[in-house]
Design brief:
0% strand; 63% helix; mainly alpha
Length: 87
């Protein structure tokens, strides 16, 4: 009867891979980075512009309610003509 030694060769490749994984240095954690685009910065300014517009609208409403708002028909006509000429 012949008894062969049990070989550990089938286990060795896995052991080497395991050892490589444990010896690799840990990567430094990634840092978060925040970039604000120019468009976003412009949108942050929007409430300021919106407040100016609200003030103008309030002024127009007040003039219309009091009857002091006058329409400049000639000025409107000139702007319309210029608009369509430049188009």
């Amino acid at each position: 009867m012949k008894i062969n030694r049990m070989s550990t060769q089938p286990i060795n490749p896995y052991l080497k891979t395991y050892e490589k994984q444990n010896t690799q240095p840990a990567k430094s954690p990634k840092q978060d980075k925040l970039e604000i685009s120019k468009q976003a910065k412009e949108l942050q300014k929007a409430p300021e512009v919106n407040m100016e517009r609200q003030e103008k609208l309030a002024e127009l409403k007040r003039k219309i309610d009091s009857g002091t708002y006058e329409i400049d028909a000639k000025g409107i006509a000139e702007k319309l003509v210029n608009f369509y000429k430049n188009k």
